[in-house]
Amino acid sequence: MRRTYRLTSQPLSCKVTNIMNTKRTSTQRITTVATLLVKTLLLSCALVTAAIAELPQISDARVVQPPPGATVAAAYFTINNTNSEPLQITDVKSNIAKKVEIHLSRVENDVAKMQKQESVSVPAGESLKFTQGSFHVMFMGLNKNLVAGESMQLTLNTNAGDLEITVPIISLEDAIKSKDSAKGNKTMASEKHEH
Ligand SMILES: [Cu+2]
Prior knowledge:
It is a single chain. The chain is about 25% helix and about 45% strand. It contains 4 helices and 12 strands; from the N terminus they run βααββββββββββααβ. Strands 1, 2, 3, 4, 5, 6, 7, 8, 9, 10, 11 and 12 form a 12-stranded mixed β-sheet that branches. β10 (about 150-160) and β11 (about 160-170) form a beta hairpin. The protein is globular. Copper (II) ion binds near residues 114 and 138.
């Protein structure tokens, strides 16, 4: 059975409250108990961190709200492969469009083109940016209005399991502010797709 993980776009962290600092103890016995508790907390945190470290981390996920009438949109994010094995993204799925594919943008003879990728590999311990002008998840034949402020679900099928990501939909203005080029949304519709 495939493993499915729900990922948020926030970095995961592990909080440990050091009870040694919050509880002043007067007897040796209580201090020992407190030390044991701290050790247990630290150990369980270390175990949780180890388990999480095997999962890829997704950050900065976003879809720019397409202009009215647009039939395509693209999702961008950064994926960090914290595992010691290469990560293979083999497929992408979402119910917001008829067709969902991984694309790579490139410029050939001054013409911007996008090419479907059968899979994308992220080397062990490295991260890969899905971004304007590079890798992106392309939604073609949108069957849902994408509204800024809302979010959409995207599933990445990988060799580490299926990663379910909640992707915030952002306005073009916010995208420009965060350096996603405004040009991007226009060229996205006019760029040629090769399959
Ligand atoms: Cu594309």
